[in-house]
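dumping these here so i dont lose them again. two proteins, back to back, each one seq then structure tokens. dont judge the mess
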Amino acid sequence: MTTVADEPSSPAPQAFDEVFAQLVEVKGWMSRDQARRLWDRSSVLTAGERVVEIGSFHGRSTIVLATSAPSGVELIAIDPHGGNDRGPQEIAGFETEAQGDFEQFHANLRAAGVHERVTHHRQFSSAALAEVAGPVQLLYIDGAHRYLPALADIRQWGDRVADGGTMLIHDSFSSVGVTLALVSSTFFGRSFRYIGRSGSMTEYRRVRLTPKQRVRNALRQVAQLPWFVRNVLVKVCIVAKLHPVYRALGSDGTWPY
């Protein structure tokens, strides 16, 4: 199912702090720093360029992208709203919530004044590949966090990113599946330079890396693994209700993201 806006238009320019404050009632997992990174990368695009978001849930990230993108930038959100991969520890079994998630997503976009800017593909990302033709200048991946689906998103959709374009990936060095997918793709790949991260949101730039650059690129990502180990330990302790342990690790009991 694809929901297409009739007459795409841009909302009046708004400051980041104003927009982020409006997201307090929108359910999701995205910190202020992560939202700022999305905002900054979207705001420098130009008319005719394209943003693709994989995994929208209730629209926190979609609203940030759609509000910051200049007029004429195409925005595509891909989320099946199928009751699976909804969030932490919600991999499957939430089919009864699926239609509610879909409706809430669109209601939130309308409330933010950006619904007309966004084309929503209610499909799995693998199916949407055939629906979205052409290059992508900004790709944001926050879909299924299991290894194989995450790897497929990084490889298949990453191939769509234009030279010099940006790929952002949520739950990097936090989710086991996403991190293993990064090891299998970006750590030693030749097409994406690791730029940095905001919490678990990593940023990559599409460039052609020389052999020496690939080694440096791998080492910069390997350097994030201690933080990944810490996040895994925090999750284990939260599930096991080992409050003193996760507090000793610097967590307040919030699921790491």
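---- next one ----
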Amino acid sequence: MGDHAYAPGVTGLITLAAEAPVPNLDAGSLVLVLAAASGGAILSRLNTRILLPTVVIEILLGILIGPEGLGWAKIDTHIDFLANFGLVFLFFFAGIELVEHRVARRSLLRGTAGWAISIAIGVAIGYILNGAGLHAEGWLLGVALSTTALGTLVPILADARLLSTTLGSAVLGSGVAGEFWPILVVSIFLTGAYGALFETLLLLVFGAIVLLAAAAALRARPPRVVRVLQQTVHTTSQAAVRLSVFTLAALVFVSVEAGFDFVLGAFAGGLVVGLALSSPEAIPVRMRLEGVGYGFLVPIYFVVTGMNFDLDSLLTPEGIGLAVIFLGLFLVVRGVPALLWLRDLAPRETLSLAVYSATGLPLIVAIVGIGIERGAIGRDVGTSLIGAGMISVLVLPLIATALAERESSPLDDAPSESPA
């Protein structure tokens, strides 16, 4: 750790602050960002017949107030910090969702097999496009094309009463795989700090730490500590929320110190906290965490993504054409594995699963942002990829729901599956 500066202490921090003052907060821009985040939540629910994805509205409002739009708001260091914290919480909640949905083991295995097919097709296409001159690394394109927006799909499936059907189980299995494996691959391949063997060993050590933390979360629950956590749920202490955020920060720190991307630590933090909160009594704690994340930090990340969005690059023949190509590739890369479910689903339901699985945006935004920062993808290509993701969450779930047969078979009638 010789390359890292030591902590200067309180006196040292005061001296440093006097010598190099922190830039002033642009309060006006922050207010506009928060207004856009609030507006996204309201505007997405104004039409009771069609619920628009909040993420898309937040990005569009970010474009509107940002430099590519009206130019009312700009990103300073404070807003950028909050946005990055929101990105950490985005992957944190992805880990919690993986535990919360308790997808049947059979669906998870088939979803993982389907994702393996997706990543093989996606990486092959990615390297073909890269060889044709597209400014993006082939593996990164392959991972981005193989994602699924599970968080966007779950409420849509619930509203359509499809969650308790075989189709719903298939979408959950496909969606969990389409979130977990891309996060794991991106967090490893975007580092490159060490050799492949050493990185594998570090990953195994990190995995052992996560397993120990998960075991502690499930078993080590001293009665006194549990009592304190329960007693502070409805007080200003909020001990369970503080412990959850501490776990997240600790695993992100360990992940970064080990040379991996913060994404892996944030996702692992979600898995550990999700296991610790996997009981009905923990629902209030999960709600408070969602209040911090989805109510404050995550929306800032998507609004700032809109403010950074290169609209001029998208609104060109090349940009629009590339976005359309990417949208078609989503359907190919994520749609082909739906054929694995033909034995359990009718042809129309299988097509619906293919279209549902091709819906992706939150992880695409995150992957593109990290890729641009690491120089693995050009800003113009990333813009078209995000544009295609926005279209996918706006259009594909509507088409998939329309395709789904109303008489989808309930899970009770399907072959029995043991929960994961």
